[in-house]
Write a structure and sequence with these properties.
Strand order of the largest sheet: 1-10-9-8
Mean pLDDT: 78
Largest sheet: 4 strands, antiparallel
Oligomer: single chain
Structural class: alpha+beta
Radius of gyration: 21 Å
Shape: globular
Order of helices and strands: EHEEHHHHEEHEEHEEEHH
Length: 312
């Protein structure tokens, strides 16, 4: 049976529900017997009172159309409001979960290993731009965005982008995600989960996600030597290249080292369905030679880079 992608599950924009209830206390408009008032900034959040609107602001402000964004800039880059943009980011991130897991672990290895990044707390900071194949809300969600910048930073360096409550909620989510990963994948040792803060160029939006960090195969073998660093940088570049054009990497279903490759296509005009690449051998060969050749720092063929990465 074909796998169908169910998009836009509950996420950090839950307070922006389209339901006719207060975005803070949750009271329903029907039972209040009066109209809820929409936020003047984003026209999405709804409140039953000024008190609720004020109490919700520390969380809501990161999703609202702030007045410090110039009027000539589209604050939600073609999406109708913050909720739609945040959902698109979540959908894109979920579709590329395997690639993001690889990026997270490679970045941790390249920046001093687990001890230097998981504790004291660090944050994955990812700035997105619209993807080259972006067609807005109606387009393929796998190609909606591309990575503009990616870095790992101490939590204190991004404090200006987030509220205290958002950070506390993120740490709580990290604990829950780590435990879930440990139970779901006992064959791999989860060292922890890194919170990731996403933003989009020229928008006020900030959303949170969480990615697992696994104990490396060579326990304690950090810092990496030059050859190992080249492999980690190569695998990150392969992920960038794939994600930025809507190609999807997934954890391999067989014992091979490289990921399964594919994309998603519309199914019955409504839902998106995973579609494996017609010829994976041709895909990897195209990265090794020809017009789409991908030169590697390590000197390994792109397909072989994955085997070396899994030995780090």
């Amino acid at each position: 049976m074909a796998e169908v992608f169910q998009l836009s599950a509950a996420n950090s924009t839950a307070h922006l529900s389209e339901a006719t209830q207060c975005s803070h206390c949750g009271q329903w408009e029907y039972y209040l017997r009066r109209k809820l008032k929409k936020c003047g900034g984003c026209a999405v959040a709804k409140y039953c009172s000024k008190e609720c609107q004020k109490s919700a602001w520390p969380t809501h402000k990161e999703f609202c159309h702030r007045p410090d964004i110039p009027a000539y800039i589209d604050p939600f880059v073609g999406y109708s409001n913050a909720l739609r943009l945040a959902d698109a980011i979540k959908d894109w991130t979920n579709i590329h979960t395997y690639a993001f897991t690889v990026l997270t672990n490679a970045t941790v290895l390249l920046n001093g290993g687990i001890a230097a990044n998981v504790s004291p707390p660090h944050v994955f900071q990812i700035e997105l731009a619209l993807g080259v194949n972006n067609a807005g809300p109606a387009g393929n969600p796998a190609a909606a965005f591309k990575i503009h910048t990616l870095s790992i930073r101490p939590k204190d360096e991004i404090a200006h982008r987030t509220s205290g409550s958002m950070w506390a909620d993120s740490l709580e989510a990290c604990t829950a995600v780590a435990e879930e990963k440990r139970q779901a994948d006992p064959m791999h040792v989860v060292a922890g989960v890194l919170p990731a803060v996403f933003s989009v160029v020229n928008t006020p939006l900030v959303t949170w996600h969480h990615f697992p960090v696994y104990v490396p195969y060579r326990r304690g073998a950090t810092p990496l030597d030059d050859a190992a660093r080249a492999v980690a940088e190569d695998v990150m570049e392969l992920c960038y290249q794939a994600m930025n054009v809507g190609t999807i990497y997934r954890a391999p279903e067989t014992r091979k080292r490289e990921p399964d490759v594919g994309t998603i296509t519309r199914w019955k005009k409504k839902k998106w369905q995973w579609k494996p690449h017609d010829d994976e051998d041709a895909y990897w060969d195209s990265l090794a030679r020809g017009p789409n050749a991908h030169p590697t720092k390590s000197g390994h063929r792109p397909r072989d880079v994955w085997g070396w990465f899994h030995t780090l």
